[in-house]
Design brief:
The structure is a homodimer of 318-residue chains. Chain A has 318 residues and is α/β, with parallel strands linked by helices. Chain A has eleven helices and twelve strands. In chain A, strands 2-1-3-4-5-11 form a six-stranded parallel sheet, with helices on both faces. A four-stranded parallel sheet of chain A has the order 7-6-8-9, covered by helices on one side. Chain A has a two-stranded antiparallel sheet with strand order 10-12. At the A-B interface, α3, α4, β2, α5 and α6 of A face α3, α4, β2, α5 and α6 of B. Chain A binds a DNA duplex (16 and 16 nucleotides) through α1 and α3.
DNA sequence: CTGAAAGCGCTAACAG
DNA sequence: CTGTTAGCGCTTTCAG
């Protein structure tokens, strides 16, 4: 049999008689033959690699998105190639360049903010490009995510409705974490519309998020102990803060309310359930992967997921 | 200038005059040219992809290993391609096959237990193969990890030295999590040598690990409330158990001792620091990547890291 | 320092 | 259903 027949059998394309198919299978297995996809990719201009670019793997949000995406991609015979940018636009550009050199079947990357060169590369890629996590801005092609501004605003509204007024924000100190920034902006905008100004802010970087949540909470409460609500930019620091408050015996949510963000399942194991909003990370991973699997570049698909407030036990009932 | 000259400039190989180099750079940038690595890989039989195969991304251990590996690989111009097996040998084999089809520059994969077909493929790969996390067994080529049996044994010895005798083990219900199994085996062996039998066992699967830690602890203590030590197979369920115990007002570590495994930095934010042993995940990722970067297939390199007990505040001082 | 020729191992597109 | 013929876009090798 010719190499061509072998190729047809291994790819499951074209009509091949059952007899030759069996012979091919037997032979390839006996020889331990693994077809060379590099040659295959070059010949067919079709590649099963999908670039997935995330800022970090330290924040559980991204491994979860990646897991969900990976499941859908695998089912379609595609493979993720992961790149980590560390929230650094320069690194994002380099990683993207390196990945596009493999002519992937699609690109999934976090955020809507990218350098000019990155945008140019993505527009020229000719494959589905899905920007994930965020929908507040212009997408290059497809986008799947949530509106962080709206999420921040809705939480602010819920807090105000519950009667809290002396409110602080605790978050990460990362100039390029645009989504955290947008949550805070949406949050402040709604407070401002109600004539309420933020009564405190605290930012951290590095280290154990749980411990930092604890420290920041102590710091912000030490500075001004009449605060009645603390909004954390993620659930892990929120959990740390909650544990600190419980240790202090603060009355929650009567005296002090708390909320985080992400909807991590960590929440379920805390002594008191922290209020949060789901980041929809599994749906985002799945939907983004589906768009890539569909394979239509320039679809402009836009999926906005609407996370709801999970009030838990750390916000007073209005 | 010929395509050849362009190739030389872009790869930084061979002597090219400064003038032509500049012209090439300008032209490629103007055209947004991204060289095709598929063609390059086929022509040169050299590829910058490294297969990294892990059982899961839900357990923070693996994203951390991946992050550390990714840093070292990136610095050497290599890219990780991630595969997730879900602790399933069949999936491991398929993922491995798919990755080897790309003729990667190296393979990093978790564990020493693999199916016969997987082992054959790895032996035939002709590139560095690094089995990570575990050193209790035969490696195909290189291995970087810790001895889980020893880790389990050392913890058992520490517990016995502290005077605890009615000891339970709480872990995950995963037949293919060989490392958790080895920790438990090492643990039981040392207990047995001292004439102590496990006084309880509890296993879980799925769901929020923190919440499961809570539930399992409640279950095991409900079944037999004279237990004086609980050994958890990971820090997250350990943290859940610790929070449950603190909520119950149990005297820790006087009445009840606790320990986890992993050395996650989650530990730092708990009200009481849980005893644990470092899984050395960053070192493992770094060392494994270094071996791949060195590029010597069949080196048989073996790096055994020696995690130490971090006693925290949940084991009595002997 | 620069160029020309000859593939790398497959698959698309035709022929039989 | 099976085989043949051309490349895919680079890099290797060898000449200038």
């Amino acid at each position: 049999m010719s190499e061509m027949t072998v190729s047809r059998v291994l790819r499951g394309r074209g009509e091949v008689s059952e007899a030759t198919r069996a012979r091919v299978i037997a032979a390839t297995r006996r020889l331990g033959y693994v077809p060379n996809r590099i040659a295959g990719g070059l010949a067919s201009a079709r590649v099963n690699l999908v670039a997935v670019i995330v800022p970090s793997l330290a924040n559980m949000i991204f491994p979860e998105v990646l897991t969900a995406a990976s499941e859908v991609l695998e089912a379609a015979g595609l493979q993720p190639v992961v790149g980590v940018t560390g929230y650094d636009p320069g690194r994002e550009e380099r990683v993207l360049y390196d990945m596009l050199a493999w002519r992937p079947a699609g690109v999934i990357l976090a955020g809507l903010e990218h350098g000019a060169a990155a945008r140019a590369m993505l527009r020229a890629a000719g494959v589905p490009v899905v920007e994930i996590m965020d929908v507040d801005g212009e997408a290059i092609d497809a986008a799947v995510g949530i509106s962080h501004r709206r999420v921040g605003g809705e939480l602010a509204a819920a807090i105000l409705a519950a009667g809290y007024r002396r409110i602080a924000f605790l978050g990460t100190l990362m100039p390029f974490d645009h989504r955290a920034r947008k949550r805070m902006e949406g949050f402040e905008a709604v407070l401002a519309a109600a004539g309420v100004a933020l009564a405190g802010r605290e930012f951290y970087s590095g280290g154990s998020a749980l411990a930092k949540g604890r420290e920041m909470t102590e710091a912000v409460m030490g500075r001004r102990d009449d605060l009645d609500f603390l909004y954390y930019s993620n659930d892990v620091i929120g959990a740390g803060g909650l544990l600190w408050c419980l240790g202090r015996g603060l009355a929650i949510p009567a005296r002090l309310g708390l909320a985080g963000f992400g909807g991590l399942d960590l929440i379920d194991g805390l002594p008191v359930r922290l209020a949060t909003m789901d980041a929809c990370r599994r749906e985002i991973g799945r939907e983004a992967a589906r768009i890539v699997v569909a394979g239509r570049a320039g679809s402009g698909a836009r999926v906005e997921l609407a996370p709801v407030l999970i009030p838990g036990e750390t916000i007073r009932r209005p």
